[in-house]
Amino acid sequence: MPGTSSMRPQQRSQEELLLEYVRRLENIRRDRRAVLLHLSGLLPFNRREHHLRTAANSFEAMIKRLMAQLFSLGSGDVFVVYKKEVQGEVETAVQKVRFLFGDDPLVTGDDPRTSRLCTWYNVDAQYQEVVDLARDLVAAGRREDERQGERLAREQVIAGEPLTPEVLARVEQGLARADLSNHVRRQYACDLASEEAGPRPVFSELFISIQDLRETLLPGVSLLSDRWLFQHLTETLDRRMLSLLANAETLHVSGDVSFNVNIATLLTPEFTAFDDGLPAKRRGSMILELQKVDVFADLGAYFFAREFVRERGYRLCIDGLTHHTMPLIDRERLGADLVKLVWHPDMVDGGAGAYARIKGLVERAGPSRVIMCRCDGREAVDFGRSVGISVFQGRHVESLIVEDSRKRELMRLKRRGRRT
Amino acid sequence: MAEAMAPALADPTAEEAMLYEHARGFERARSGAIAVHFHLSKLKEHNRQPHFVRIAARAFDTLITEHDAALYVLANCDLVLIGRDVRVGAVDPVVIKLRALFSNDPLTSGDGDDPSAVFATWYDFADLNDYTRFIGLTRKLAAKAEELQRAGSVSPLRPEATRGAALTPAHLPGITERLQMVAVGELIRQQTAFDVAGSKILFREHFVAMSELRKRIAKDVNLFASPWLFQYLTGFVDKRVLIAMAGTFMSGIKEPISINLNMSSVASREFRRFHDCVGPFARKVVIEMQMIDVFSDMNGFFRARDWLQQEGYRVLIDGLSPLSLQFFDPSLLAADFVKINWSADLEAEVGSQNPAHMRETIARTGPDKIILGRVELEKSLKWGLTVGIHQFQGYFVDRLFRAMAEKQIL
Prior knowledge:
The structure holds two protein chains of two kinds.
Chain A: H1 14-24, E1 32-37, H2 49-57, H3 60-64, E2 68-72, E3 78-83, H4 87-100, E4 118-122, H5 127-157, E5 161-162, H6 165-177, E6 184-191, E7 200-208, H7 210-217, E8 221-222, H8 227-246, H9 248-251, E9 257-260, H10 263-266, H11 269-277, H12 280-283, E10 286-291, H13 292-297, H14 299-312, E11 315-321, H15 331-334, E12 338-342, H16 346-349, H17 351-365, E13 370-373, H18 378-386, E14 391-393, H19 395-419
Parallel strand pairs in A: 5-8, 7-9, 9-10, 10-11, 11-12, 12-13, 13-14
Antiparallel strand pairs in A: 1-3, 1-4, 2-3, 6-7, 6-14
Chain B: H1 14-24, E1 33-38, H2 50-58, H3 61-66, E2 68-73, E3 79-84, H4 88-101, H5 106-109, E4 120-124, H6 128-150, E5 165-166, H7 172-181, E6 188-195, E7 200-208, H8 210-217, E8 221-222, H9 227-246, E9 257-260, H10 269-278, E10 285-290, H11 291-296, H12 298-310, E11 314-320, H13 322-325, E12 337-341, H14 347-352, H15 355-365, E13 370-373, H16 378-386, E14 391-393, H17 395-406
Parallel strand pairs in B: 5-8, 7-9, 9-10, 10-11, 11-12, 12-13
Antiparallel strand pairs in B: 1-3, 1-4, 2-3, 6-7, 6-14
Helix pairs in contact in B: 1-6, 7-9, 9-10
């Protein structure tokens, strides 16, 4: 499970700043235009902080030249006020954003003229409308702040409260009814073998954000405080994930996907029903991620489940190995297709001895079978490459994807510019 | 990881009765009809779990929809396929699938010499002999199933400990509360780990008799239904044991002892008190930890191990099987002892695998670090000796130990 981080926007006063700015425009509003980008309408896993930041960055050059002013609203929406001269540039920037979220239903098949992605304003002609909008945004922002304030206060009262069996029983009951589709996150594992070609997605991992879940169901309770109770909770999450995946269209999932699952879950009627409902082709595109503790807790059950799911066409990945635990796991003998090695700066700090050891481990497991995960920075990828790994996952990979799509879009625009 | 499941059918005798009727229906037109009896009831207990059998039965889905055939899942876990014009070539892939699913069971690795280890029996109804035998078999099965139902037995194949409602988080508060009231000290049993080569006692393991504890704190609950919740529960048992054992050291101890602990219990207040009581005797205390615990938090284990060893304790990794040894190298855990549990389920496995691998593992880990546990029969001990093990624990060892003591060999 990739590390999850809180992504709640903190720019509380942006709405107020916007209102103030719009008011100041009253007498100088000629030739002013504005655009509101409805990024809050994106699918949850596209509404990631760095995605939103990248979207905002598209306007940076104009802002620096004082041709535009940008407000990142608490909802995730972006409001840009600009001078008429840069209309073309703004349109290009919006186009870039459109490309960034190319596979999001908010954008796909979107006609720029009747766009759901953005609303255009002529500040001069629609001045009162813009003022009203800013005022509404301030009011909405305040309500949201109050809710957050209450939430924070509540969290502080019971901060770090450990997960108890009573609480677990309650959570599991609540989960049986909860709609978790908003808590599903997606993270890509990409082949980074060639710098020029850019990141090539191999598959994407779908997971339920534990952090989100905690905030929704049990603010203040540390779900991870007891590993055994948490492990039991994951069995309930498995079942919810299966029911979400059974309706893949609700998640807008395409390409090969992986998800975490307990071996016990693979042997339940719920999994059988899930399997029955999948088109045969889809099974081949699914990777089941198992925890090593689960595999070794009952090897007999693992072997039985392995035969069953591999015969059905699924692939298996053993998740969460570290450079300490990887020597203990013989991927080939266990008959797993893939293993995930968790990046840790220790790997580099260990010097030549550690390097040779890790390189040997990767060789033994088969370099094409190892995915380095939780890569937070470039260092992880550089190290991974040096020991023969080519597929990576983590925050750094996510930002490479965003960067790459920007680069491609720029090139596309340049080519188009040349042609016209 | 057995999830307690309701029996597949409300009336366990229905399936057998229907099979009998179905078979009788072929009496007038036997040609082209066959039956195949899959003896899953002969699988080792571990593989005979209801969810395994349910998944195995699914292997027949396509065969049944494409042929005039039916599958019966019997109360004893056996599967019977019966039908007309079913090509042998269509059944064979299913047999292969089933064998693959249970490839870790001795039943599927039998070479056919042993008549009790037959995986499947075929009946060709065109042959009157075969047909008569099959009718006799189904009649017998139906009668047996009915008898079992009358006796009110849930399933003759389920051991007592796994009966009762599956353990859920909601059970835990009551169970842990009752645990506080039980005098755990009374339930502590001892078993000796013995070094055959040196004819000396290695240590006496002190453990809680779980079946007796279960009677007192969770009579109607199957504590083993969830390995994770069971592990949670053992954390509470640890604390009670630590309190009960702390007194042992008042007058000093002669022979080394071992106790079972969760990694997390090493950091508990109860352990600190225990540690204070142990004083200079730490060298005589072996701390046993479960492999599942170690695997769940390897870094936590390394820290706990280092601290314990530094304080003089010896650390033992419990819960390995000959099967798990094929998949990881215990020497990498750098523990003082590794306990491999003998299990009858794995007997055939051990026989069929290359013993050289096992010998190599044992040599690499160090024979002085390896203990073969759950030695209940002479053959387990013999097997251990052939692969280079000389430290043993189990009922058979207890008996051997007593006999030797009587003859004053010790």
